Amino acid sequence: MKRRITRAIVGVTAMVVVVLGVPLAILVQHSYESRAVVELQRTAAEAIAELTVPLRAGEIAAAAREPDAPQGFSVYDEGGARLFGPGPAHVDATEPGRLVVVSPITDRATERVVGSVLVSRPTDAIAAEARRAWGLMSLASLAGLALALAVARREADQLAAPITALVARAERLGAGGEAAVGPATGIVELDTLAGALTVSARRLAELVVREREFSANASHQLRTPLAGLKAGLERGDLATATAEADRLSATVDHMLALARDGLPSAEDVDVGPLVAVVADRWTPAFRGQGRELRTTIGAGLPRIRVRPASFEQALGVVLDNALHHGAGTTRLTARTASGGLVVQIDDDGPGIPRHRAGAVFDRHEGVGTGIGLALARTLVEADGGRLILADPDHAEFRIVLAAAPLS
What angle do CA 254, 259, 264 make, to 5 degrees? Predict the structure, then answer.
């Protein structure tokens, strides 16, 4: 690109030099010829001023010897014969290679032409003067081309620098790095391109983050369905295996929808049956570890507006956390609260250290993958609810949901 810009600027400058220089050179040639004619005419006029009528060769020679008399002129009589000077024998004779000017001599009394004065100059001398002028013009043209080359290189560097920066940003973006926003160049097209690249980089970064979250969330959420599917197949319980396979597929679809902001719309549901379904699903897992999952579902629970799959996923995450990090009996309680309801999960385990209580919902914090509770909070908040750690000492988590508005 730099070469193209340089060639373009220098090429245009050279074209301008040629287009303007050739006519100028011709004008210079004509100018020197015209100036030579004027000088010869002046010399002839000065010579005529020194002469007297009638024309006599001796008097002409005496006048030519005067200190202020012009040099190199020739005088011819009325018939054109030479009376004095270095010119040709007859005034009409040609002088090859010389510029000739002939001026008439008149008798002031009668206004009659009584002779003529011839002066000449070699055309080679005139051409030499023109060539010297052409040489100076050529040097000026070369200096102009050199200046154009320097300006072209500077402009090419200034124009190519932001493009090079854009290429570097695109390469970093393609390599998975960050495409840092550069300063404005003042060139509308390049700034527009840089803005588009910045937007694309932001979108790609968001897409990468979403896909990474999907991978992490899916890997975390698929462990339990996969374990149930494996257990069902080992026991030869095809009904259980089929149910777990369906759950596995639903989980993948739900996590993918979450990653792409494509979750289905929330709906008004009775939370009691949802809690019971989740409790029935997790009871065997707790029983397998010699623990009890005690479920209490209060009467008269208000309907809530949630996505059922999101609620089940979030509740399952909290129960999974209690299963792996708690101890003793785990209590799952759904009860009415002011303006909505609360689903509470706590156990008889050692609880959560106070110094870690504020970080349990951060991704990649704590024991294990550090994904589950962060995912559960995301799912609950997507439905307008809250997931909080109410009592770290008893690992008491609460899902708080507002009641659905009355239709």
Answer: 45
Decide: helix, strand or coil at residue 117. strand
Alpha carbons 164 and 77: distance in angstroms, whole number: 84
Task: Provide the 8-state DSSP code for 81.
Answer: B
At residue 288's C-alpha, the angle toward residues 282 and 291, to 5°, is 80
**DSSP H/E element including 118:** strand 113-122
Bigger pLDDT: 96 or 173? 96
Which own/partner pairs from 387-392 qualify as long-range (CB within 8 Å, at least 24 positions apart)?
A: 387/314, 387/318, 387/361, 389/352, 389/357, 389/360, 389/361, 390/344, 391/346, 391/351, 392/351, 392/352, 392/353, 392/354, 392/356, 392/357
CA dist 372 and 145 (Å) reads 71
Decide if 60 contacts 84 (C-beta within 8 A): yes
How many angstroms separate the CA atoms of 396 and 348, rounded? 10
Residues near 82 by beta carbon (within 8 Å), at least 6 away in sequence:
74, 75, 76, 88, 89, 90, 91
Phi, psi dihedral angles at 184 (to 5 degrees): -70, 140
159-182: pLDDT as tens digits: 777 777 777 777 666 666 565 556
Which pLDDT belongs to residue 369? Answer: 42
Cα–Cα distance for residue pair 302/81, rounded to 1 Å: 139
Name the token pair of 256: 């993918």
Question: Strands 113-122, 396-402: parallel, antiparallel or unpaired by DSSP?
Answer: unpaired
Could you tell me the two tokens for 380?
Answer: 């609950």
Span 106-129, pLDDT tens digits: 988 888 888 999 999 998 888 888
Instruction: Please give the pLDDT value at position 115.
Output: 92
Please say if the pLDDT value at position 407 is more than 80. Answer: no
Burial class (CB in 10 A: 0-12, 13-18, 19+), 66: exposed
Q: How many CB atoms lie within 10 A of CB 209?
A: 11
Q: Which token pair is 304?
A: 């809530």
Distance between CA 394 and CA 389 in Å, rounded?
10
Amino acid at residue number 284: P
Report all structural domains of the chain as residue ranges with CATH numbers, in order of start: 2-144 (3.30.450), 181-256 (no CATH), 263-402 (3.30.565.10)
pLDDT surpassing 80 at residue 285: yes
Residues comprising the chain, all counted: 407
pLDDT of amino acid 187? 66
